[in-house]
Write a structure and sequence with these properties.
single chain, Thrombin, subunit H, Methane Monooxygenase Hydroxylase, Chain G, domain 1, 2 domains, five-stranded antiparallel sheet
């Protein structure tokens, strides 16, 4: 269970802060909810505490995991389908896992693929969205600015 004030990750939305844990009545049933403020855009999200694991809420990666993320980012491209729609679906499934390790692999693969050929519109958007999510989590996990986290990624991919 997460605590009020804790920074956590909501897959596909990014880093959020638990603002409150409240009981609300929904269709006559009392349910406990995490009230999250997504830090990137200040939006609020309610997640039933019983459903937190199913939607992939998780703690920020620890400092020890940061180096593992950079190892993944520096790795070689994975074998991927030549069909962009199949590749997009495979990448989307990896992102839905909520794992930053999977997200880093998707970002690396799309970044390296982009150097070889044009990405589809959907893949370009996925690349940018994934980059933003990685930068946000790395900046919070390392207690650095998003600009510094962006510079770390840029150094890896020689942007």
């Amino acid at each position: 269970m997460f605590e009020v004030g804790e920074e956590i990750v909501y897959p596909t939305l990014g880093v959020g802060k638990v603002e409150a844990i409240e009981v609300r009545e929904i269709q006559g049933n009392a349910q406990q909810f995490y009230i999250l403020r997504i830090l990137s855009d200040n939006s609020m999200v309610m997640v039933p505490t019983d459903n937190a694991e199913a939607v992939g809420l998780r703690q920020l990666i620890g400092q020890g995991d940061v180096s593992k993320i950079f190892e993944i980012l520096k790795g070689d491209i994975d074998e991927m389908s030549a069909n962009w729609t199949r590749r997009y679906k495979d990448n989307l499934d990896r992102l839905k896992s909520g794992s930053l390790f999977q997200m880093a692999a998707v970002f690396r693969n799309l970044s390296l693929l982009k150097q070889r050929r044009e990405l589809s519109f959907g893949e370009k958007k996925m690349l940018e969205d994934t980059k933003d999510l990685i930068i946000t989590e790395l900046s919070h996990a390392q207690r650095i600015t998003p600009v510094q986290a962006q510079e770390q990624l840029d150094r890896i991919f020689d942007v």
